[in-house]
Amino acid sequence: MKASTLRKYFVMGSQNCNKDPLSILDEAIKAGITCFQYREKGEGALTGGAKYSLGHKLRQRCAEADILFIVNDDVELFDALKADGIHVGQSDRSVKEIRSKYPDTIIGLSVSDRTELEQSPVHLVDYLGVGPMYRTITKKDANPVAGPEWVKVVKKAFPEVPVVGIGGIHPENAAEVMEAGADGVAVISAITHAADISAVVQAI
Ligand code: 3NM
């Protein structure tokens, strides 16, 4: 994948939204996001048919706009929606297993510290999600803040692998993450809770 595709990476599930997720995605696409991840997870998240149904609509919107559509964690949903890729955390399905079944799909992996990085099959993934950059209230079980320094460490260890920072990123601190060497920034609440989505996406 082209690293520049990660530049403005919007992550969202219905549990992050206080208005219609489809209209939020539409506004974000119009404003210039470069990648989208459907992350229906945590308190209040949809399950089963409702999760699929929203995913299907979001997937269609991304296909129409030619925006990469990534599914978080749920391999069956990724398959059913014919998503462009899947993003997994350390305790989700194994990267090796996913790669052997889907040789050509985009796989993203979250890494939060050196031990995770050392133990990860980085050669099998297309990009790394590194965080949390800053304090986040969106992910209740987030690891301790690693900060933009963590981007530098990961980029030094794997200069060829695209890296996207995540966690507490908003227009005022996004540049710091990019200056640390990230290829992009991934945000949830900065966009889902924005009074003016277009302004926030452009400012990022
Ligand atoms: N992963 P917000 S932090 C989904 O550190 C997620 O791996 C993280 O939400 C990690 O942009 C996080 O609202 C939540 O802070 C990001």
UniProtKB/TrEMBL annotation:
Recorded superkingdom: Bacteria
GO molecular function ontology, one term from the record: magnesium ion binding
Enzyme kind, highest EC tier: transferase
InterPro entries on file: Aldolase_TIM (IPR013785), ThiamineP_synth_sf (IPR036206), ThiamineP_synth_TenI (IPR022998), TMP_synthase (IPR034291)
Residues reported in the UniProt entry to bind 4-amino-2-methyl-5-(diphosphooxymethyl)pyrimidine: Q37, Y38, R39, E40, K41, N72, S110, K139
Entry annotated with the keyword Transcription: no
Catalyzed reactions: 4-methyl-5-(2-phosphooxyethyl)-thiazole + 4-amino-2-methyl-5-(diphosphooxymethyl)pyrimidine + H(+) = thiamine phosphate + diphosphate; 2-(2-carboxy-4-methylthiazol-5-yl)ethyl phosphate + 4-amino-2-methyl-5-(diphosphooxymethyl)pyrimidine + 2 H(+) = thiamine phosphate + CO2 + diphosphate; 2-[(2R,5Z)-2-carboxy-4-methylthiazol-5(2H)-ylidene]ethyl phosphate + 4-amino-2-methyl-5-(diphosphooxymethyl)pyrimidine + 2 H(+) = thiamine phosphate + CO2 + diphosphate
Domain called Thiamine phosphate synthase/TenI: residue spans: 9-191
BP GO terms, sorted: thiamine biosynthetic process; thiamine diphosphate biosynthetic process
Pathway annotation: Cofactor biosynthesis; thiamine diphosphate biosynthesis; thiamine phosphate from 4-amino-2-methyl-5-diphosphomethylpyrimidine and 4-methyl-5-(2-phosphoethyl)-thiazole: step 1/1
Residues that hold Mg(2+) according to the record: D73, D92
Enzyme Commission code(s) on record: 2.5.1.3
Needed cofactors: Mg(2+)
Cellular component terms (Gene Ontology): cytoplasm
Pfam families reported for this sequence: TMP-TENI
Claim: Transport is one of the keywords in the record: no
Residue numbers binding 2-[(2R,5Z)-2-carboxy-4-methylthiazol-5(2H)-ylidene]ethyl phosphate: T136, I137, T138, G168, I188, S189
Keywords: Magnesium, Metal-binding, Thiamine biosynthesis, Transferase
Free-text comment on the cofactor: Binds 1 Mg(2+) ion per subunit.
Family the UniProt entry places it in: Belongs to the thiamine-phosphate synthase family.
Biological role: Condenses 4-methyl-5-(beta-hydroxyethyl)thiazole monophosphate (THZ-P) and 2-methyl-4-amino-5-hydroxymethyl pyrimidine pyrophosphate (HMP-PP) to form thiamine monophosphate (TMP).
The protein, known as: Thiamine-phosphate synthase
